[in-house]
Every structure is written in structure tokens, then in C-alpha cells.
Specification:
transmembrane helix, alpha+beta, Clarin-2, about 230 residues, transmembrane, Clarin, five-stranded antiparallel β-sheet
Length: about 230
């Protein structure tokens, strides 16, 4: 059985791996990865709206990996609508990149579960292979954290380089054109960042578990041998 110190560290890693798994599931299930303000450019140009009047043409949008919604304002009040990314909207986006983001997210929570399982195994049993010892736990945490980082960077690339918000805002808009005034990453996005950070901390804990601390040994008293001891 591993020592009490290692068991405590492995228990902490197991708890944080489970927390990372929950964070990723919550992030996948919520539709607010990004929010923003959208301007109905066509409507504003038609009436030649000035700054005080532009409020009537500024709506809102939010979306996640699988759907979202928006409120469009084109001078006649707000109109709310919802949309789903799959199967139609994804064709208007960078399909490969968006599918990769979903794949990376699934891989991240799968390896987080693997880390949890291997931590429990190492708490109750002495590892007899490197892949099942601290090296194995480090491997699964590295993979889980790496895929979480890929999710974050890929989503940021889709937003900044491929105009993700603008493409979604103009989906099925045949008359009006919308431009993005403001974008803001929301809680679900930051949950993925937190998941990556959790696995980074786990790697540090695995490194600490490999440190061999010096043990204090009590000095044994020298035995006094007498003639009677030799005889008997």
C-alpha cells in the first residue's frame, strides 16, 4: 500500500479530476460561451440613424457549442429567436474547427475520468507498472489538460480569426446585415479554462508525490553482552 502522504495526494488528485469532469460537462450543456451586442447595420443605414437613435438598432446574441439565441432590433422593437448549431448552422461556420472543438472537449472529460480511476487504483493498490503509478496519473492529467487547452485556443481562434459571432448573427438573414459591436466570453468558456488549470495543479501534485522525504530513525541502543549471555 502507498504511504499515507501519497494516499492523501492521490485523493486530492482524484477529487480535482472529478471536479474537472463536472466542469466540462456543465460547459458542454450550457449555451452561453459567448455573448455580444449586434447592430442592425441595414436598418440603421435605411433611416440614417444618429447616435441617440442607434439604441433602437442594437440587439443581443449569445451562443455555445450546440445552440444559442439572439434578439434582433431593426427599428421596430426587439424580436427574439433561438437556433441550433447542428445540423444546419454548422455548415455556415468553419465546420472542421467547430467539430474539433467538440471532439477535444469529449477527449478532455474522458481523460479526466481516466485520471480519477487511476488515482483510486493507486490509493488502494501498490502500482506494479509505471503506467499505473504516478507516471500514469501524470500522463492522463497531461492529456486531459492538453485537450482542455486545445478547446480554449480553438474556440478563441474561431471567434477572432473566423468571425464566429458575426457568422452566427447573420445566419438566415436575407434582408438585414448585422455587425458585431461587442463580444464577451462567458462562464462556460471560463469553466474550460478552470478545467485546464485543475489538471496543471494535478501535475504539480504528482511531482510532489514522487519526492522522497527523509525519515527520522531512532538510534538503537548497543546491546551489553555479558558472560552469562554467552553461556545461555
Amino acid at each position: 500500500m502507498p504511504g499515507a502522504f501519497k494516499q492523501t495526494l492521490f485523493a486530492l488528485i482524484a477529487a480535482s479530476s472529478f471536479a474537472s469532469f463536472v466542469l466540462i460537462l456543465v460547459a458542454m450543456g450550457t449555451p452561453k460561451w459567448m455573448t455580444g451586442k449586434i447592430l442592425c447595420k441595414t436598418g440603421a443605414e435605411l433611416v440614417n440613424a444618429t447616435d441617440p437613435e442607434l439604441v433602437k438598432f442594437i440587439g443581443e446574441i449569445y451562443y455555445g457549442l450546440f445552440g444559442g439565441g439572439k434578439m434582433r432590433k431593426c427599428g421596430l422593437g426587439g424580436r427574439r429567436s433561438k437556433f441550433t448549431i447542428f445540423p444546419h448552422l454548422v455548415k455556415q461556420l468553419n465546420t472542421t474547427l467547430h467539430v474539433l472543438i467538440v471532439f477535444f472537449l469529449c477527449a478532455a472529460f474522458s481523460f479526466a475520468l481516466a485520471s480519477l480511476g487511476f488515482c483510486i487504483f493507486n490509493i488502494i493498490k501498490v502500482p506494479y507498472r509505471a503506467i499505473q503509478g504516478p507516471a500514469g496519473i501524470a500522463l492522463w492529467n497531461f492529456l486531459a489538460g492538453g485537450f482542455a487547452v486545445l478547446v480554449v485556443t480553438s474556440f478563441m481562434a474561431a471567434v477572432k480569426l473566423h468571425n464566429l459571432t458575426e457568422r452566427i448573427a447573420n445566419f438566415r438573414e436575407n434582408v438585414f446585415q448585422f455587425v458585431i459591436l461587442e463580444e464577451q466570453y462567458e462562464d462556460s468558456f471560463w469553466l474550460c479554462v478552470a478545467s485546464a488549470a485543475v489538471h496543471g495543479v494535478n501535475l504539480l501534485l504528482v511531482a510532489i508525490s514522487g519526492i522522497r522525504f527523509p525519515t527520522l530513525k531512532t538510534k538503537t541502543e548497543e546491546a551489553n553482552v555479558t558472560a552469562e549471555d554467552i553461556m545461555y
